[in-house]
Amino acid sequence: MTFLIALLLFVLAVFLGVELISKVPPTLHTPLMSGSNAISGITLIGAVVSAGAEQTVLATWLGVGAVALATINVVGGFLVTNRMLSMFSSKKKRTK
Amino acid sequence: MTSDFIQLGYIVAAVLFILGLKGLGKPRTAVRGNALGAAGMLVAVVVTLTDNRILSFWQLGVGLVVGGCIGVLLAVKVQMTGMPELVALFNGFGGLASVLVVGSSFLEVQSADVNVAISDTFTIAAAATALIGAVTFSGSLVAWAKLRESVGSFGFAGIKVVNAALLFGGIVLGALMLGAPTSTGLLVGVIGCGLMLGVTGVFPIGGADMPVVIALLNSLSGLAASATGFALGNSLLIVAGSLVGASGLILTQIMCVAMNRSLPNVLFSDAPVAGGGADADEVYAGKVTSTSADEVALLLDTAERVAIVPGYGMAVAQAQHAVRDLTRALEENGTEVVFGIHPVAGRMPGHMNVLLAEAEIDYEKLIEMDAINPTFAQTDMSIVIGANDVVNPAAREDPDSPIAGMPILDVDKSQTVVVIKRSLSPGFAGIPNALFAADNSLMLFGDGKQAVADIAAALKDV
User: Fold this and answer.
1) 3-state SS of chain B: helix, strand, coil percent to 5?
2) Which of B75, B161, B405, B417 has its CA 20 to 30 A from that of B29?
3) Do B186 and B300 reside in the same domain of the chain?
4) If contacts are CB pairs under 8 Å, which of residues 154-193 in chain B contact chain A?
């Protein structure tokens, strides 16, 4: 992938992100933040290759550390977002 | 497997992330949006496991299992009051993970055949990841510690200069790497500058500005992932990282607008100086009326419409369940109860909404600032619990006030205002609150949770 293609992807995704998020009700600010934070754990896929590839011992273990941290971010982030959102919806059913 | 297969998988994952973020923006689709995001992540990881560069799976498995267990534990154990801390912590982990990935690739490149040319793109992106990721990590840890109240704020006169120097130093060291792309010392230097910048950058920022900081760190964790994508030539990292970076920036912007301040002002200004506008003795002298739970209950008994305005004090006092009980009691009495939520109430975007949701208060009762403000004139009583600057009429009326122009909740326009507060101490802005001295204001001094419970109990006896 050339640098310019990468830059194009970056710029388009930034604009898309702005469009997607610009109108979010305050109730969802926290879940949006923790959910998008889980998505930023995507660095996990870079970590997976670093940890699994045949390379120097130090490089591998840096990769393993990255896998562990990114997995905490991903698994914890999506789970806790789901927990919060289910609170929002379940109490609605109970009051109706 | 071929790399085409992986790339196709990445496209699927990117689409799932986009649909997921879109879903997270609306209450009805938020749960599904989150699930779509998680599905995208699963697809991304599974196709990545087929990468033929991966030769050994056991260390990888260790990382996944350890990280997964810790993640589940943290997510299940956390109390909703601890949410800002957890979000800060996850941000930090994401930032550090990006730094480690780039560090690992850097070592690999370094140990490779000397004849292999190292692209400038890799070098610049690695340096950028190291800097952004390190700032995100240390900044998030400081934010986490501040939110736990283990540390206070500190600052000194020259801290802005130090921050600028650290940022500049990080960029210069990164640029020097173009001439020496295999220099470990330079990369470590960049990481060091980033780590220090995160600490000195976040430490001086006051508690009430935390929503801005948390949203900004969220954005930075996305940008760090995106920069990692440039270094590894990984399209999905670039796309997902910049989506998150953009959404975090939007949230940051929303928070800044709600405080009538610019981002540079939040990040680089010294804490607001007390003394601007009126002074405390002048504002309060002889005009503050204090009340009791019984008196408030009597007034509430005949009220038709009550607005509750929570702030960070409600979170500190863990008063959300007591507030729920009071709300139920009022509703049984035929009183309409709504909640006025200021966008920056609390310590992270949406903090009050999460706490009230935990206490099973219907989110349709939570009214945004712009929607509730015109209705205060028809409100019999507003109850302010642990909020201060966001209800200070000085923002509207006193052009000399440090918070002049900040949008506030106009509780002073309701017939009676009851302010539940420990003392007359000023809020974060360090200024007296004219609301406390207003003719229609009653102060109920005490712990938020206890005071609300007392009112609810007294209401039953009326």
Assistant:
1) 65, 5, 30
2) B75
3) no
4) none
ipTM of the complex: 0.92
Q: Which residues of B351-361 are buried (b: 16+ CB within 10 A; e: fewer)?
A: bbbbbbbbbbb
Catalytic residue among B281, B380, B389, B461: B389
pLDDT, one tens digit per residue, over A26-85 is 888 888 989 999 999 999 999 998 888 777 888 888 999 999 999 999 999 999 999 888
Q: How confident is the model at residue B96 (pLDDT cuts 50, 70, 90)?
A: very high
For residue B277, pLDDT over 60 is answered with no
Asked if residue B179 belongs to a domain, the reply is: yes
- Polymer length of chain A: 96
Query: CA-nearest residue of chain A to B344?
Result: A26
Residues 25-84 of A with CB under 8 A from B: 25-56, 58-84
Q: Choose among B31, B221, B368: nearest Cβ to A85.
A: B31
Q: What are phi and psi of B240, to 5 degrees?
A: -65, -40
**DSSP strand E in B353-397: where?**
366-368, 381-385
Of B72, B234, B250, the CB nearest to A45: B234
Domain count, chain A: 1
Specify the DSSP element, H or E, that contains B307: strand B305-310
CA B95, CA B103: separation in Å to the nearest integer? Answer: 12
Residues B332, B448 share a domain: yes
Residue B119, SS3? coil
Structural domain for B362, as ranges: 280-461
Q: How far is CA A71 from CA A45, A74, A78, B51, B124, in A?
A: 10, 5, 11, 18, 26
Let me know whether B264 and B406 are in one domain.
no
Verify whether the Cβ–Cβ distance B70 to A72 is below 8 Å: yes
What would the two tokens of residue B140 be?
């998030």
- Per the structure, the count of domains in chain B is 2
Instruction: Give B411-446 pLDDT, tens digit per residue.
Output: 989 999 999 988 887 776 677 888 888 888 889 888
